[in-house]
Every structure is written in C-alpha cells, then in structure tokens.
Amino acid sequence: MNHVLLSQAGSYRDITQYLQARGARVTVIGPDGAGMRSKAAIVRAMLSPRLWRCRGLWTRQDRLLVVGWQALPLLALLKARLLPRPQRLLVMACFIHGQRARRVADRLLRWLRIPGLGFIAFSPGEARHLVQGVGMAPQDVFCHLWRQELDGRAAPQEGEGGIFAGGFSNRDYDLLLEAAETLDEPLVIVASQHNRIRPPARASTRILRDLPETEFEDLLARSTVVAMPLRGAGEACGQSVLLRVLRHGKPLVATRHEAIEAYLGADYPGFVPHDDVHAMRSALAGVLAQPAWREELAQRVRQAAQVLAGRGEPGAEIERFLHG
C-alpha cells in the first residue's frame, strides 16, 4: 500500500489526489493552513507531536512518500526503529537556498539514511547535491518538473503595461528595484511578508504583500513583461510564478537558474546573469521597447507550456518513482 505524509495540509494536490484515488492513504503531520512559512515555523512544525500520528500507519511492505521537512524527524524515528521501516521511502519538497543550511542538512541526511530511502528532486541542483553531498546513489534520486494546476486562475487580460514580479523564495528584489529605477514603465512587486525589500526610489513602483492568488495572477496577466530576479545560489525556486507565466504566455526576463532552465531550456533568450543590475535593466528595457522581441520571448514561453503539458499527470510520475 502507498502512504503520503504531508507537512502542510492541502499541499501538492495534483500528486496527493492522484495517489489517493488509487488507494493511497494521505495523512497530515504538519500544521493546518497553506501559504509561505518562515524558517522558524518550519522548525516548530518539525518538532510537532503530530508525528506520532504515524504510529501504526504502515507496515514494512508498504511504500511511503513524505512531503516536506518533517522528513528529518521521521527519518530519525525510523533510524531508531521507533517506527517500522517501509519497503520504499521517498522524500520530496525539502528546499534549501543557503549554503550553511545546505551543509547542515547534508550532514543530517547522511547520518539518517536508511535502506529503501530515495529523494524526488525539483531541480538539477537539488539532485546533484543529494548525490554529491548526501551520498545518495544516482538511481535513488528522481527528477520531477513540478506542474500543479494552481488556484487563482485569472482570465487573459489586455496588457496594461508595466513590469510584474512576484514570489517569495530566493528572490533578489533589491536588484530589480535598482534595475528599474531608470525605466519609464511602472513596476509591481507582489512578495511575501518574509521578503526583505528596501523602499522603492520611484513613485511608479508598488510593493504588495501576500495577495490572494487570483489578485496575484490578475496583476501578472495585465503586465507587459514578467521579471524574475533570483539569487545565484539555491535549489528549486520560482516555479509557482513560472507556471502562471506559462499559462498566460507572458514574456519573461529571469536570472539564469537551473530550476527555470529545466522548463524553458538553457537557450531561452530571456535569461540574464545573476547579480547583474545592468543586464536586468537592459533586458527589461529591450522587451518593453521592442514588440518583436516581446513576441519572440512569449512564443518560447508558449512552446515550453506545450512541452510541459505533454509530460502527463504529475501524480502518475510520482507513482512510477514510488514503484521504481
């Protein structure tokens, strides 16, 4: 039998609902509610007594998918044999964007490895770290392009002009603010309360926090171009915003990052180097001023959306990994 343990209720529905419809048992071992959480909230959830809901859930013949950082205390319980070790245990959605945190997590995961353990990586960088830093065998690390059908779908909009940027993880919004200072078009940033952003220098820039998904996507749909300023380090990031870019066919200017290359291809012409204010400014200015260039980027985005749709249901891919 397959089991799914969620660290947050309602997360990864396209995967969990697919598996549940095929007989998997889904158990929430983290807090209720959705949305971005701080690092402190994640640590508190890892120490939650809800982990004891796992007692008696599975046998040694079952397969287990663990979503989120509750995987660490769960692995400790399995390592200590306080819970039965399942036949197969896959862990996914444990993202890290800092080098110090990555080193700590690598040491913990090396110590907590058990037979039958595998990982589902959402970016090439994450997969590489699991092999090189944790010592996982390559055949026990599976790469998955996340492609959940996100809530908050907005109707296609006529562009009202301007630059849109949004999202939480691994963002460099201060770089974008500096890049946009000399541009004429307005800029809207929709960030999390956890993002630290300096006050904008111009009146045509708005910084909004934690908008409902429909409002978030409506602003994206009304923009002329979407900017994605990412930091050079980090693993999976930017993908939830990218999925909205894909379904609206918006031209995208993004910091080059493996997590985004996996969807758009390394040769996507809208990438700029990280930590390069001038490159971000020049790329955005070119897209805003040149309709033909905007259309070329939008066409590449639409092609990427078609390729992603052809990969099939995400839950089916995860089910293959569980039984692989």
UniProtKB/TrEMBL annotation:
Domain of life, source organism: Bacteria
Source taxonomy: Bacteria, Pseudomonadati, Pseudomonadota, Betaproteobacteria, Burkholderiales
Record GO terms (molecular function): transferase activity
Protein name stated in the entry: Glycosyltransferase
Keywords: Transferase
